[in-house]
């Protein structure tokens, strides 16, 4: 038995698929949108990728924050599916949506890496620029966040290993932030702006995935602008035998 569909229904179905399936090109890079809306726009004199979380494609529930944030809402860099070790660097700019869709928005913006083809697993480091220069140290300590999808999202890590996977960084809303992540085996270090030394270290990442795609991340309430993404793959750097840190 065949079912006839009206032209209007077919048109609506095509439009819905197009919103999630479209690819955007910025310079020589192409991005595939996963549960975000996006466009290439001119911002402060430069062409950038602008993305926001698509709450129709992936709803947010304020009564189930842990379950409905840190999900696959990002723009995937097309053509690089085997990033394992190396450097990911990007310039990003975070604005808050107005009106705010949720009282707890903080400008969530950052990077996903080692993303599996089907979005079933990935690693992430992102920032909450709203609290980066807070006059309250406890809030500042929540500026940087690592998580590993799907088993170790932010709230799980905050409860099981407080402050081990969070940290501070001198970032803010409404200004360009250069984020650089150095990934090496089970560890990752984050550098911001022109700082010589890293401001955040993940000693041992928790995901089982070892290689995959790279993506640009925003979450609830963020308007994110991205440009100048650079990804450099590198072989695993092994510490010399006997090399260890000392502490007083």
TrEMBL record:
Give residue ranges for domain 3-keto-alpha-glucoside-1,2-lyase/3-keto-2-hydroxy-glucal hydratase: 81-231
A GO molecular function annotation here is: hydrolase activity
Span of the signal peptide:
1-21
Q: Which Pfam families match?
A: 3keto-disac_hyd
Keyword field: Signal
Put simply, this protein is called: DUF1080 domain-containing protein
User: Which source organism does the UniProt entry give?
Assistant: Aquiflexum gelatinilyticum
The top of its lineage is: Bacteria, Pseudomonadati, Bacteroidota, Cytophagia, Cytophagales
């Amino acid at each position: 038995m065949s079912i006839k569909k009206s032209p209007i229904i077919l048109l609506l179905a095509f439009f819905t698929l197009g919103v999630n399936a479209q690819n955007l090109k910025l310079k020589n890079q192409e991005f595939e949108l996963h549960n975000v809306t996006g466009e290439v726009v001119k911002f402060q004199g430069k062409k950038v990728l602008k993305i926001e979380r698509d709450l129709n494609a992936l709803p947010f529930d304020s009564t189930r924050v842990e379950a409905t944030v840190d999900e696959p809402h990002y723009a995937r860099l097309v053509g690089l599916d085997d990033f394992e070790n190396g450097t990911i660097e990007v310039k990003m700019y975070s604005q808050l949506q107005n009106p705010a869709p949720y009282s707890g928005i903080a400008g969530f913006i950052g990077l996903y890496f080692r993303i599996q083809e089907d979005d079933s697993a990935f690693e992430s480091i992102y920032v909450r620029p709203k609290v980066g220069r807070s006059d309250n140290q406890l809030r500042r300590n929540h500026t940087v966040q690592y998580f590993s999808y799907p088993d170790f999202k932010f709230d799980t890590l905050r409860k099981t290993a407080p402050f081990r996977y969070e940290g501070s960084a001198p970032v803010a809303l409404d200004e360009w932030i250069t984020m650089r992540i150095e990934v090496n085996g089970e560890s990752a270090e984050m550098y911001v702006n022109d700082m010589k030394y890293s401001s955040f270290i993940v000693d041992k990442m928790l995901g089982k995935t070892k290689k995959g795609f790279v993506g640009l991340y925003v979450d609830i309430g963020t308007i994110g602008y991205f440009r100048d993404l650079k990804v450099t793959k590198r072989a695993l750097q092994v510490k010399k035998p006997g090399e260890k840190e000392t502490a007083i």
